[in-house]
């Protein structure tokens, strides 16, 4: 579920056990028109997520009752369209990658400024899925069919479940088959033209997209022709036709 555009309609579930940070972020979000529910542990945060839909989850990794990575993974499985932004004091690259791979859309290292957090939220919410545009937005390459109007992906006769950013990344590439698409172009179209976050977000999302498509191809009851997501080192990515 996504908000309709005005920021005062955006609902935020904030999962953070630190009282000082919690009060500061809650007050900052409310002062900018966001509706905030603050949970102080992973279990209570998951319970709140189940009680009512949210547009955004701000998630601390260092929670008292469970690891935030596990919370992110469960949130993504149960609420595939929610925007998950991790707030973490863990700045090692492996922790960031693990969080993104668990289903988070972005991360912000502590300490952070409220202005940067608000800018990140605005950037992501500007990129929320557009309304369906019509039947001419169906593209087929090999046995892969991408319907950007319905936001659905099929491999052969089976639907492939993709996360929002995975689908948007694939949708950009299928519109430019066999063309080199730069990292900068992909970040601008899938995330935001003013994006200033880590570009490793793109690499993690691409790796996850590849795994899902390859798993779907392996599980298909008959052989399928799967296009190839080619890495262009130092430039970006290209979607190539299936190998003969």
From TrEMBL:
Q: Which domain of life is it from?
A: Bacteria
Domain (OmpR/PhoB-type) spans 136-241
Which keywords label this protein? DNA-binding, Phosphoprotein, Two-component regulatory system
Which residues are modified to 4-aspartylphosphate?
Answer: 60
Name the CDD domains for this protein.
trans_reg_C (cd00383)
Q: Which residues form the Response regulatory domain?
A: 11-125
Q: Gene3D superfamilies annotated for this entry?
A: 3.40.50.2300, 6.10.250.690, Winged helix-like DNA-binding domain superfamily/Winged helix DNA-binding domain
Q: Is Protein transport a UniProt keyword of this protein? A: no
InterPro entries in the record:
CheY-like_superfamily, OmpR/PhoB-type_DNA-bd, Sig_transdc_resp-reg_receiver, WalR-like, WH-like_DNA-bd_sf
Checking SMART domains in the record gives: REC (SM00448), Trans_reg_C (SM00862)
Q: Which residues bind DNA?
A: 136-241
Its recorded name reads Response regulator transcription factor
Species of origin reads: Streptomyces rugosispiralis
